[in-house]
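Lab notebook page, bench 4
Experiment: in silico fold of construct C2
Operator: M.H.
Input chain length: 738 residues
Purpose: comparison with the prior construct
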Amino acid sequence: QFLYFIGVPPERRKMRRQVGRVARFPGTRAQTIHHGTVTAPNTTKTEERTKQASRAYKGMLGPQGLTETVTSKAPFLPGKATERATRHTMDRSSTFENWCHKSPTGLWMSKLGCTTCKMPRDMSESEDALQLQVIKGLNVFEIDGSATEVYQNISKSFTEVLNAFELDREGFVFVLRIGVMRQAPMPAGGQDFDMNNAAPIRNRTLPVLERYKASSLPGQTLRGGYDLENMDESQMRSLNLRRVGPRSAAAVTTEWLDASMSNIAFHMNIETVDVLLIEGLESLYDGRPDEEVEKDILDVFKWAESVVADGSAQWFGVASASLAPPLPRVYPPLPPDAKVPDKYKEDYKPPVCMNLHRLMKLAEQAGGEKHNLRYLSYPFNLTQSQALGTPLPYDDKNTLCSLAKHFNLTTLSHNPLETVDLQDKCQRYHRFPMTADLAQLRQNFFHICEKVVMKEREIKPYVDKMTRQPPLHQLFIGSVYAVLQLQLCNAFQFENWINFDILPPLRRNLMRIREGGSRDIKDWANAFDMLVNDMLRFRLQMFQHKHGAKTIEIDYAIDRMSETLSKCPIVSQKALNFATHGADVTMAGFHQSRYFHEATELNPLAGKRVPWEELKRLCDSKEVSFCDYNPPHPYMLEPFPANEANFSGQQTGLRDLLQPMDTQRPEWPDIPKKVGEDGVERDREPIPGTAPEPTPGSSEPMNAMFGHKGRVGSAEIANYGVSNWGTEEYFDGKVSPK
């Protein structure tokens, strides 16, 4: 085989000179060269899973109907991480040469890792970021088991980068996370699909579970025909799924785990996964006896040992937020007539904390003393810092970090910048744009809201005469927002609501109106579209201002508690540097190059340690945490008044789609208002409980829907974060939010 290279100029030689180099010879398969010995890679199991998934695509009932056989475009990525190659990757890196961790398994891992879950959002930018990270020496990459066909491009990017810079795959650690299927949100009003457990496929019936056992493809099929969000509990049980969130489900049976491995083999075409993380085990603790739960976990561990035995993985681990003590939750008292979800009315029950001692004993039963359970993964940030600063409930002498070191486990943390608040809404340690004149922005928003509602009343007579009337809750966006405004309390939630629940059906209905309408109707549709976009844009800017004000408070609180972290100019750098102390490797979503630059070259504390005293103060402080932030509004689910069960006389279906609230008592707890020293507005005297009745025929109804004639008491709290954060007392730590 080596005679092929005789006479080839050096600049055109394709043979790699490092250990484990792969060369493609004319007419032969990819072969692995180890010190002059040519051996064919063991691709039997990967090829078998890839073919299995390809066959399952044929005849699949998907978004476009029946599909033919699909072939994976992902190039084959052979090999596995080794101690020698990973050490070489760290030695050649100027960034991670002294900022790395040697795992007890022998692998040298960079202190920062990259999760690829956000890369499909912008593939061109993600490919550049991926190339930058590989060049700089970051060698830990995590893959989601719910990978879709977009991940074939990510696999291609990996291969191109390794080939271009003549790097070894053996120097990089690939982590696969399976066990929980996550479905991306879909635009409302899409095509309806049958969601039963027996879908017709080419004149025959094949149970959905059998299809998933063959291929999984959770991203492909669940994105269209099988919507996790719309499945009821009986359908979930028939598929052996356990609901984790609105668009996620735990699939921790051996059939589903096998299916996820087939999915990865098809979309990534990777020969060996170095670390196989199994998540969703906490969903098994559903009130059953511990013996039954541990039996199910033992079956999962035995399956993981079999995957390691056949060469598809080197080691496996457990990923769960329940490994650490639960996040403390203190909900404020609610009035007797509060309209909130039931989970806020009941006494808070903290989630179960998984016993690591029991997990290690189950691993010994599954694989003996030399079992392959060698990794743990959990979220760690300034809010969820219990793994480092809180003793375990079943072992008060250890934290999760210390107990993991006792068992020689390598710990991976994720979500260094993202966490959850009291409503389980996403919060982020990140800079947000803030407006210079908030009062003017607020007045502009009210003015646009009034114009939107007036436009809705203009078109109502025309809509009543249409043969096929569009649902008004998909057209009258201003009225819908007035009903739901107390439930929308977060910029990320609001943005998803806009992109997936509001704009797609609105544009579809406006297109119908334009097609069959006159010139005046088309002008109305164009003007209404622009007004709605302005209304939503102004509201999003106010949400971002709210997040920005909170971030500034947290930024100054970090500076007061940690002199070391105060050297970082960006709050995201402070949060990331703190997160690196809670695990051996911190996984972050570097899907943009500037995020990676901020964490490495622009980070003044890259590779440096923060004193334990400062870390302890940050773990114990609630000033830097979101754990008590954004409590549920007491009247967020107030129903429609009896005489306003619909919009403009037409039933809207909002009772089935969304939880409404009383339009006569809206509030803006997150928008600062002009208040006096006693916290009461001076432009008009508020009336406790409800707003005065509007005058018929005037513009007062819009003011009642979008104004501040609601309950008293939130003005002073809402105004605090913007008016007081820059005072000398705040810098000195003499005042705190009320």
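Observations: The radius of gyration is 28 Å. Confidence is low (pLDDT under 50) at residues 1-43, 57-68, 189-225, 640-738.
Next step: discuss at group meeting.
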